[in-house]
UniProtKB/TrEMBL annotation:
This is Putative oxygenase. Signal peptide: none annotated. Transmembrane segments: none annotated. The lineage of its organism: Bacteria, Bacillati, Actinomycetota, Actinomycetes, Kitasatosporales. It comes from Streptomyces tubercidicus. Its cofactor is FAD.
């Protein structure tokens, strides 16, 4: 074997997954078609839940000057996301190139191997592993691993080679995306609906503006080549009457509102993550952020399988947990596209949604959906998502805890991607129940630093947290704790 896991694709999802796998002890090789990072800004931030995922791995200090925005939107209709506790519209002004650089440095520090200029061309899997063929400057190479993950984008060659279905809706709209220079554009931060479509403009740096241009009624071009700046300038002039042809562009791209999802996220020893598993209209930085969360969900589970301690069926929960999240992502981005990009026929929908957003419960619902903070997984057994403690199946919110080593944040406890048992009542019985899992689960005796922090744990003597930050058990019964430990961390160790 060349590695325990091969990842195809060195974008944010693939790099995050590489780091997660290394934290779990799996050896990783990442192969990437491009000889070097593009350096393009593309995505300009990430959602609240993705930011929490980075915080759980200690990565936030690597994003200097990071800012979040309380004001967000749904389909271009603006509202305050902080109506939901802990929510915001996400980190803003972080170019995708910076996110990729941070994640690549982190993955390399952890021991991942990244091979650029290696283009995946084919695969063959058997009961023991997966062999892939890659094209390099030195000719064809074969690599073998126990598992293969396709994190290689919306056109995913891995997905196609492995025979995954990818159903959904075809593109109905085409859009241009560019960082233009020397154009001195009027800001249109949330986009401006015009007779012929929609345009958006936002300053990125001195003399540089991010623009989007979408012409209504123009069939999306079935293209593989990068559009020229002249095409973007012509579309901009048709829509706004403004001539930007005298300027230039740092880079230009195009995208559509095609919406598709893989029917399964795992076929044998081949798995999909990020855009390889789901594509949609970009809205609210959800694409990059969902890919990051795919990686965090998959990484510890796949590493556990490689390491040999995974309980039966653990790897299958990657699909059962993340596929519904992807389906909901596709639903909300399609809805936003109709509201934001539709013509006059969508006016009644916009008017209705404008009325509904005046209701705080609607704001909380939409903020939770777009931020990713409302995700709740089924943790199995009698204490599934319809019963048990309110935290069960949800992400552990950021709280300050008093421990024997001083005050620590709940996120800090997850830096090593281990499971964590919070002993909130200094309960010897709970600590004793978890002792046989000490190689996989860190037990921390802690109390909430503030009354508001304590309220979220009310009724729980202990809280069991998975490496991805989701609560697998919360309560006081040692027998139920043992069941939760066995369900997610395998059988007790034989000491």
């Amino acid at each position: 074997m060349d590695a325990d896991v091969i990842i195809v694709g060195a974008g944010p999802t693939g790099l995050m997954l590489a780091g997660e796998l290394r934290l779990g002890g799996a050896s990783v090789v990442v192969v990437e078609r491009l000889p070097r990072p593009t350096g393009q800004s593309r995505g300009l931030g990430f959602t609240a839940r993705a930011l929490e995922s980075f915080e759980q791995r200690g990565l936030i200090p690597r994003f200097p000057g990071l800012e979040t925005s309380p004001m967000g939107h749904f389909g271009g209709l603006q509202f305050d996301y902080t109506v939901l506790e802990g929510a915001h519209f996400g980190a803003r002004g972080i170019p995708q190139s910076q996110t990729e650089a941070v994640l690549e440095t982190w993955a390399l520090e952890l021991g991942a191997e990244i091979r650029r200029g290696w283009e995946f061309t084919d695969l063959a899997q058997d009961e023991d592993g997966v062999e892939i063929t890659v094209a390099t400057l030195d000719g064809e190479q074969q690599l073998r691993a126990a598992y293969l993950v396709g994190a290689d984008g919306g056109n995913s060659p891995v997905r196609k080679a492995a025979g995954f279905s990818f159903s959904g809706t075809a593109a109905t709209r085409g859009m241009y995306l560019a960082d233009v220079t020397g154009c001195e554009l009027r800001p249109r931060f949330l986009g401006e609906r015009l007779d012929g479509g929609m345009v958006m403009a936002a300053p990125l740096a001195e003399g540089v503006d991010r623009i989007i241009a979408c012409e209504r009624g123009t069939p999306p071009a079935g293209r593989s080549e990068t559009p020229e700046f002249a095409e973007v300038a012509a579309a901009w002039q048709r829509l706004t009457g403004e001539d930007i042809s005298g300027g230039g562009a740092d880079w230009v791209s195009s995208f559509t509102d095609a919406t598709r999802q893989a029917g399964e996220y795992r076929r044998g020893r081949v798995l999909l993550a990020g855009d390889a598993a789901h594509i949609h209209l970009p809205a609210g930085a959800q694409g990059l952020s969902t890919g990051i969360q795919d990686a965090v969900n998959l990484g510890w589970k796949l590493a556990a399988v490689v390491d040999g301690w995974a309980p039966p069926g653990l790897l299958d929960t990657y699909h059962s947990e993340r596929h519904p999240v992807g389906a909901r992502l596709l639903m909300n981005t399609r809805a936003q596209g109709e509201v934001f990009l539709g013509g006059t026929e969508a006016d009644p929908l916009r008017e209705l949604l404008t009325e509904l957003i005046e209701n705080d419960d609607v704001k909380k619902h939409l903020a939770g959906m777009v931020s990713g903070l409302d995700i709740r997984y089924d943790m199995g057994g009698a204490e599934g998502p319809d019963g048990g403690h309110p935290l069960l199946g949800r992400r552990l919110p950021h709280r300050t805890l008093r421990t024997a080593s001083g005050e620590r944040s709940s996120a800090e406890l997850l830096h090593t991607a281990q499971g964590v048992l919070l002993d909130l009542a200094d309960d010897h019985v709970l600590r004793q129940a978890s002792a046989d899992w000490k190689d996989r689960v860190l037990t921390v005796t802690a109390t909430a630093a503030e009354p508001d922090d304590a309220a979220v744990f009310a009724g729980a003597a202990g809280v069991l947290v998975r490496p991805d930050g989701y609560v697998a058990w919360a309560g006081a019964d040692a027998g139920q704790l043992t069941a939760g430990l066995t369900r997610w961390f395998g059988p007790a160790a034989v000491l």
